[in-house]
Write a structure and sequence with these properties.
Elements lengths: L11 H11 L9 E5 L7 E7 L5 E6 L14 H16 L7 E5 L4 E5 L5 E2 H6 L7 H14 L8 H10 L3 H10 L19 H9 L2 H16 L3 E3 L8 E3 L4 E3 L6 E3 L2 H21 L3 H33 L8 H28 L5 H4 L4 H20 L7 H18 L1
Helix pairs in contact: 4-10, 7-13, 9-10, 9-11, 9-13, 10-11, 10-14, 11-13, 13-14
Length: 410
């Protein structure tokens, strides 16, 4: 019988024993079953359920070795994820799964099973629409981001939170994969279609201004301990159904610039847009779905802005920060970061080695070449023009510029 008083990487049979011995959730006569459901690169995720009642939980375990490459990785990321989820559940209770237990020995996080929700990335690839998504995700972001700043919190409390959420190794991953390698492949890890190598060389690698702006955004990411951010808020970390939205996997959480989360959401919606643009044959259905995605992108930016201002006026405690002029200045810095990060996220998923199925799943080579080039041009425009993009419509205008640029370069 497994001893859960010392860490080891659990397999399916171990998880069943763990649930029976360590969780006060299932009845003594429960007929427990388990299966692994994780598809990420870092951790191991299991679903455990009682065959008799259907009651179920999810157990996420951090190992001492990275799942994808086997290199060492600090298991403290599991604590950070658990504490981030618990804090988010207080600030935005309907948008994250409930946490039942965090086990610091086994580095195991037990939480609510959200099997009635579906991965947003894959649902959008099925051309499904979620009219409530923009409203939900913006409420989650405003609540979890603004309310963890020192505009609202006592400065001493905020500084303690900054210390508690220091996330060295996962921040290092982001600093390399998001901010550095797409613009200088100094580690030789970028993955680029052979047919797009010359395009990337000319448009990305040889553009010193682009590298400079990416470096400025990297400096902001490293040094701007603004709020507790999710840190990896892409569409694969968002689960949805027609009535509800749940955000999972905040293992990259730390105190950073809040625009990083907002920008990740916006950037990932463009992957869905480009996939539909190059692969959908029936024009009427394509235009309808593209219009839905464009409206969602606009709504994410504009609803975030609207809700941010409303909560700012209601919640900010800092005396000088209550000034309307300061609020406008502060929000503009967040929107600038949002735009820049949208571009960074698009660029790193297209040029870097951490891809998304929205693009890799395009089977027709010519369609994929086209999709990648449009995305690269869009990403570059967003990064370079981030100081002037403030409203949702500005992002759609940027997309049109990228399409025109693509036609010029092809």
């Amino acid at each position: 019988m497994a001893d859960f008083n010392k860490h080891f990487r659990m397999k399916v049979e171990d998880v069943v024993l763990y649930a029976r011995e360590k969780l006060d959730i299932f009845s003594e006569d429960a007929d427990l079953k388990a299966k692994e459901i994780g598809d990420g690169n870092i951790n191991y995720v299991f679903k455990v359920w009682d065959e008799k009642t259907g009651q179920s939980v999810v157990i996420k375990q951090a190992d001492t070795l990275l799942r994808s490459s086997g290199r060492p990785l600090d298991t403290d990321r599991n604590r950070i994820e658990a504490e981030a989820l618990m804090l988010q559940s207080k600030l935005a209770p309907s948008f994250v799964p409930k946490v039942y237990k965090y086990d610091p020995i086994m580095c195991a996080l037990t939480m609510e099973d959200i099997s009635d929700h579906y991965n947003l990335r894959y649902e959008l690839l099925k051309r499904k629409k979620f009219p409530k998504f923009a409203d939900h995700i913006t409420s989650f972001m405003v609540n979890t981001l603004l309310l963890t700043t020192d505009l609202v919190l006592d400065p001493a409390e905020k500084k303690r939170k900054v210390k508690n959420f220091i996330n060295v190794e996962l921040c290092d991953i982001s600093e390399k994969l998001v901010f550095t390698e797409p613009y200088n492949d100094y580690l030789g890890r970028n993955i680029i279609l052979r047919e797009n190598i010359n395009f990337v060389q000319k448009i990305v690698y040889e553009d010193k201004r682009l590298a400079l702006e990416a470096s400025k955004l990297k400096n902001n990411f490293i040094n701007n301990a603004q709020s507790l951010i999710h840190g990896d808020l892409h569409s694969g970390s968002i689960f949805v159904n027609e009535e509800s939205t749940k955000i999972i996997d905040p293992e990259f959480a730390f105190y950073g610039p809040m625009g990083y989360d907002v920008g990740n959401v916006v950037g990932n919606l463009f992957f869905s847009w480009v996939n539909a643009y190059v692969t959908m044959d029936e024009e009427e259905k394509r235009e309808d779905f593209l219009s839905y995605l464009e409206g969602t992108i606009e709504d994410v930016v504009d609803l975030f802005t609207h809700k941010f201002k409303k909560m700012y006026k209601e919640s900010v405690t800092d005396v000088l920060a209550k000034s309307p002029a300061y609020m406008d200045w502060y929000l503009n810095t967040v929107l600038t970061d949002t735009c820049g990060v949208s571009g960074l996220e698009i660029m790193r998923r297209t040029v870097g080695d951490s891809k998304v199925v929205d693009i890799t799943g395009i089977e027709d080579l010519q369609q994929r070449i086209k999709a990648e080039r449009i995305l690269i041009l869009l990403a570059k425009y967003l990064i370079l023009n981030r100081n002037h993009i403030r409203q949702g419509k500005d992002y759609i205008d940027a997309l049109q510029v990228a399409l025109q640029e693509y036609n010029y370069h092809k």
